[in-house]
């Protein structure tokens, strides 16, 4: 490459840098401060731009794209409101460790600080909701900054980054720095190899366990397909029971014989009881979140804990562990599997036999049971039927946030990683539809379903228009109970069943809404018709909004009420009105 | 194993802090780039940690490295978390808990010094007394008229506290303090 080849405008540098970082799709929305970049997008064919209808949608779509492919998601928004609308997906990606590069336009450098039109302090606003961010003030540093943005977003614990580019920098001519030549920030060097002595100690502890459990999380999926393979191998070798957080579903197949189901607030009885009573806990790529642990001082009181995490700040943050291993899950599992194979004496089967029997007894409790009905569709039943109908296909499921999300996690079985996309950490209503769009862009032939609630879906419904524009046949399956179901459930549990503002009195006609956008609208309120309608929905090669009317007042059980321990779960058959009303004591009421 | 479980930086479980609060001095080596101080301070405010004193200045000009000295308080687990969270910030090169390091080296505490400028009014006979006390504290006169002095004083924070208290009845006008600069004793660097 000659020097003249490397001279170009800032906007050209942006496109070249994206291309050099393997980007094929960008989700975005134009505006004054990014017009030069949009002009470059117009004049090339290598990168496809997906026009969303709101910047929040761009962010969630990029997250969906990233999580379903393992690549970095890219979003492009303008200054001011474009950037502030990006804050929600940035924080969402930060909490769920999703690699995201967000390019924002900024007012020209000469106007920064003058309260110019559509100006905001983007790096200031996004500082706490990104892994790192930059304001580029020199066009000659633009390329290197974008390369560095991609490196930081996808290495170590993945996360979102922002590159804020003033408009005059986009117009200015400068030199393009190729990816191979860029100077890296020396202070950033994530540790990926685990300490072998710690891994050895962990394997020895695991071999001595009488009541072991593997507790895995989104870190396994972030680490890549190899980590999933090694995890399955480790389960095979050790025969340990395994549970997972919401974020980690699919790393171990739901049909696997050691699978206990999801753990946590709405997790299975067997998973939570096993967590409470275990003697050795192996936490792999999870972070002891409050939805998982319940009351901290009663969390798994008699176990020795091993914690594998790439982020040193996750170690001992909420729960003190006995053997911390800082490193990439895949690398550590590789060592762990190798050392387990090399054990001079493998534990006898009898060592854990009593534990396996105990787990079977807990499993027999059938904690996800619900009373089905011939007259009204139970939400759990709807998910089960949807799951059955999707079997054998390349299926991706996204969700919004609330009861439907928990039912989807409980009743939809995931056999492979990267197929389940949900807003776990931030709990963002409105995530599901744009995320589904991102997934469908990356996997045009796949069946992509957004399992939604009637309230959540209305938070980013405008993206229907985007799905239509790009012919993305996403399926929006709304469990419509006419309430913000989880809010209503908590009001019942905590606030004397006073349903303050949780009933949606003016619900849109979702069928007509779908048709208004140019999509297919479907309606079902009879259990007997459900299977046929679901089959019809899957067969349509266009976006569908499926208004599935379900029992209005169903609650999501089992549940660990706030402030309670794993072994104080509220089970569906014990959840009488009285038990529900008294489930949370005064102290628990203060918690979220 | 978990009898020592304590609530930590998480705001979720609002429980009484049962563990003892400790006061530690941290040294943080950062790239001197725009916004780096905001990242450090934002971390403390965002996660609810305390800052008792914060000092920052570029220490290696060619390498553009600044050294931030932070005095903070917290339970041992919170202090461990603060260090880990600081280490996550991209332009942070190194974080050393000088208090922990001192105890590892068998020392009581790191060397901690502060500079203060202290302006005191004084006319007539009181001036001699003011100067005599300042001399006792090894404070240096850096500016004076017939009606005031400005003293420069260096030392431990407690010494400066004491000097300020002594000057109060003698006509203290204003005080400016740098915050703490600190390092460990012995030949090793941070």
Automatic annotation (TrEMBL), chain A:
Where's the Thiamine pyrophosphate enzyme central domain? 199-335
Example GO biological process: isoleucine biosynthetic process
The record's annotation in SUPFAM superfamilies points to: DHS-like NAD/FAD-binding domain (SSF52467), Thiamin diphosphate-binding fold (THDP-binding) (SSF52518)
TM spans, by residue? none
Query: Which PROSITE patterns does the annotation name?
Result: TPP_ENZYMES
Q: Which domain of life is it from?
A: Bacteria
Which Pfam families does this chain map to? TPP_enzyme_C, TPP_enzyme_M, TPP_enzyme_N
Q: Which UniProt keywords apply?
A: Amino-acid biosynthesis, Branched-chain amino acid biosynthesis, Magnesium, Metal-binding, Thiamine pyrophosphate, Transferase
Enzyme Commission identifier(s): 2.2.1.6
Q: Where is the Thiamine pyrophosphate enzyme TPP-binding domain?
A: 401-548
Q: Which residues form the signal peptide?
A: none
Stored InterPro entries: Acetolactate_synth_lsu, AHAS_TPP, DHS-like_NAD/FAD-binding_dom, THDP-binding, Thiamin_PyroP_enz_cen_dom, Thiamin_PyroP_enz_TPP-bd_dom, TPP-bd_CS, TPP_enz
Biochemical pathway: Amino-acid biosynthesis; L-valine biosynthesis; L-valine from pyruvate: step 1/4; Amino-acid biosynthesis; L-isoleucine biosynthesis; L-isoleucine from 2-oxobutanoate: step 1/4
Q: State the GO CC annotations.
A: acetolactate synthase complex
NCBIfam families the UniProt entry points to: acolac_lg, PRK09107.1
Family of the protein in this entry = Belongs to the TPP enzyme family.
| The protein's name | Acetolactate synthase
Lineage summary: Bacteria, Pseudomonadati, Pseudomonadota, Alphaproteobacteria, Hyphomicrobiales
UniProtKB/TrEMBL annotation, chain B:
GO CC term, one of those recorded: cytosol
User: Which EC number(s) does UniProt give?
Assistant: 2.2.1.6
- List the GO molecular function terms: acetolactate synthase activity; acetolactate synthase regulator activity
EC top class, as a word: transferase
SUPFAM superfamilies (alphabetical): ACT-like (SSF55021)
Q: Which UniProt keywords apply?
A: Amino-acid biosynthesis, Branched-chain amino acid biosynthesis, Transferase
Q: Which Gene3D superfamilies match?
A: 3.30.70.260, ACT-like. Chain A, domain 2 (3.30.70.1150)
Q: What pathway does this protein act in?
A: Amino-acid biosynthesis; L-isoleucine biosynthesis; L-isoleucine from 2-oxobutanoate: step 1/4; Amino-acid biosynthesis; L-valine biosynthesis; L-valine from pyruvate: step 1/4
PROSITE patterns, alphabetized: ACT
Catalytic function, reaction form:
2 pyruvate + H(+) = (2S)-2-acetolactate + CO2
Name the family: Belongs to the acetolactate synthase small subunit family.
**Quaternary form?**
Dimer of large and small chains.
Q: What does this protein do?
A: Catalyzes the conversion of 2 pyruvate molecules into acetolactate in the first common step of the biosynthetic pathway of the branched-amino acids such as leucine, isoleucine, and valine.
Its protein name is Acetolactate synthase small subunit
Q: Which organism is it from?
A: Rhizobium straminoryzae
């Amino acid at each position: 490459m000659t020097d003249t080849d490397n001279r170009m405008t800032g906007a050209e540098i942006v496109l070249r840098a994206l291309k050099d970082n393997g980007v094929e799709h960008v989700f975005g929305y134009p505006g004054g401060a990014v017009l030069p970049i949009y002009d470059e997008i117009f004049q090339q064919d290598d990168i496809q731009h997906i026009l969303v209808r709101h910047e929040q949608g761009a962010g969630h779509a990029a997250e969906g794209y990233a999580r379903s492919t393992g690549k970095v998601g890219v979003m492009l928004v303008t200054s001011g409101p474009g950037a502030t609308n990006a804050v929600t997906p940035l924080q969402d990606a930060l909490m769920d460790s999703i690699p995201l590069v967000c390019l924002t336009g900024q007012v020209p450098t000469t106007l920064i600080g003058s309260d110019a039109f559509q100006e905001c302090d983007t790096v200031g606003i996004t500082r706490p909701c990104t892994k790192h961010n930059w304001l580029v003030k020199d066009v000659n540093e633009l390329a290197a900054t974008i390369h560095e943005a991609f490196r930081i977003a996808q290495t170590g614990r993945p996360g979102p980054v922002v590159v804020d580019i003033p408009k005059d920098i986009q117009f200015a001519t400068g030199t393009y720095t190729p990816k191979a030549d860029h100077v890296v920030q020396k202070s950033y060097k994530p540790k990926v190899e685990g300490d072998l002595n710690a891994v050895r100690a962990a394997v020895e502890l695991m071999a001595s366990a009488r009541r072991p459990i593997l507790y895995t999380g989104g870190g396994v999926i972030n680490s890549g397909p190899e980590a999933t393979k090694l995890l399955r191998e480790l389960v095979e070798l050790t025969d340990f029971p395994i549970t997972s957080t919401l974020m980690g579903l699919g790393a171990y197949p739901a049909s696997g014989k050691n699978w206990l189901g999801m753990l946590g607030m709405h997790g299975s009885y067997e998973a939570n009881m096993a967590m409470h009573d275990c003697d050795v806990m192996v936490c792999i790529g999870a972070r002891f979140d409050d939805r998982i642990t319940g009351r901290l001082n009663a969390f798994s009181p008699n176990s020795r804990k091993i914690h594998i995490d790439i982020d040193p700040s996750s170690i001992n943050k909420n729960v003190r562990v006995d053997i911390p291993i800082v490193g990439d899950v895949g690398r550590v599992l590789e060592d762990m599997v190798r050392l387990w194979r090399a054990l001079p004496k493998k534990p006898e089967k009898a060592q854990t036999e009593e534990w396996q029997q105990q787990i079977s007894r807990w499993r027999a409790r059938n904690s996800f049971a619900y009373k089905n009905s011939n007259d009204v569709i139970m939400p759990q039943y709807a998910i089960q039927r949807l799951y059955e109908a999707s079997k054998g296909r390349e299926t991706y499921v996204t969700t919004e946030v609330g009861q439907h999300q928990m039912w989807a996690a409980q009743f939809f079985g995931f056999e492979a990683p990267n197929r389940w996309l949900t807003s776990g950490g931030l709990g963002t209503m409105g995530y599901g539809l744009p995320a589904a769009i991102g997934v469908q862009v990356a996997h045009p032939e796949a069946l992509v379903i957004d399992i939604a609630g009637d309230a959540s879906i209305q938070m980013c419904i405008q993206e229907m228009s985007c799905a239509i524009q790009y012919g993305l046949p996403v399926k929006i399956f709304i469990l419509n109970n006419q309430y913000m179901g989880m809010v209503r459930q908590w009001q019942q549990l905590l606030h004397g069943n006073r349903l303050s503002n949780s009933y949606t009195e003016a619900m849109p006609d979702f069928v007509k809404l779908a048709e208004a956008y140019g999509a297919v609208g479907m309606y079902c309120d009879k259990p007997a018709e459900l299977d046929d309608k679901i089959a019809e929905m899957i067969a349509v090669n266009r976006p569908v909004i499926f208004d599935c009317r379900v029992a209005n007042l169903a609650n999501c059980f089992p549940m660990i009420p706030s402030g309670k321990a794993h072994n104080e779960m509220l089970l569906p058959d014990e959840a009488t009105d009285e038990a529900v009303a008294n489930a949370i004591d005064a102290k628990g009421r203060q918690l979220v | 194993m978990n009898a020592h479980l304590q609530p930590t930086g998480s705001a979720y479980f609002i429980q009484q802090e049962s563990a003892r609060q400790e006061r530690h001095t941290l040294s943080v080596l950062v790239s001197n780039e725009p916004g780096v101080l905001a990242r450090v301070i934002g971390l403390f405010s965002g996660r609810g940690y305390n800052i008792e004193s914060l000092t920052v200045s570029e220490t290696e000009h060619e390498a553009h490295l600044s050294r931030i000295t932070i005095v903070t308080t917290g339970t041992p687990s919170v202090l461990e978390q603060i260090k880990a969270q600081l280490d996550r910030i991209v332009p942070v090169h190194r974080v050393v808990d000088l208090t922990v390091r001192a105890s590892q080296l068998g020392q009581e505490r790191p060397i901690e010094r502060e500079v203060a400028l202290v302006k005191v009014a004084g006319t007539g006979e009181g001036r001699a007394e003011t100067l005599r006390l300042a001399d006792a504290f090894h404070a240096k006169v850096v500016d004076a008229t017939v009606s005031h002095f400005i003293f420069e004083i260096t030392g431990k924070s407690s010494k400066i506290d004491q000097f300020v208290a002594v000057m109060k009845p003698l006509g203290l006008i204003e005080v400016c303090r740098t915050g703490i600069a600190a390092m460990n004793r012995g030949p090793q660097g941070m």
